[in-house]
Amino acid sequence: MNLFMHYAFDVWIQRHFPQCPFARYADDAVVHCRSREQAQEVMHAIASRLAECGLTMHPEKSKIVYCKDRSRTQTYLS
């Protein structure tokens, strides 16, 4: 699975979204985006890419979260 995800996800996301650092743990991934709009675009693209590979995103685990700290005051979860 790890080798499959390397080519199906890791190489693909580096090629298509080089400005978005990511970490993948087995079949889970965290992708860092600069805006909610970018996060929505990336999430849609990942869903499409996984569908091309015969995979789907987990409907409950797959979401956009806002990483709040002292310099960020907005909150959202979708």
TrEMBL record:
InterPro entries xref list: DNA/RNA_pol_sf, Rev_trsase/Diguanyl_cyclase, RT_dom
Domain Reverse transcriptase per the UniProt entry, residue ranges: 1-78
Record bears the keyword Transferase: yes
Transmembrane segments: none
PROSITE patterns named among the record's database cross-references: RT_POL
Pfam families in the record: RVT_1
Keywords: Nucleotidyltransferase, RNA-directed DNA polymerase, Transferase
Domain of life: Bacteria
GO molecular function: RNA-directed DNA polymerase activity
Record protein name field: Retron-type reverse transcriptase
Source organism of the structure: Paraburkholderia youngii
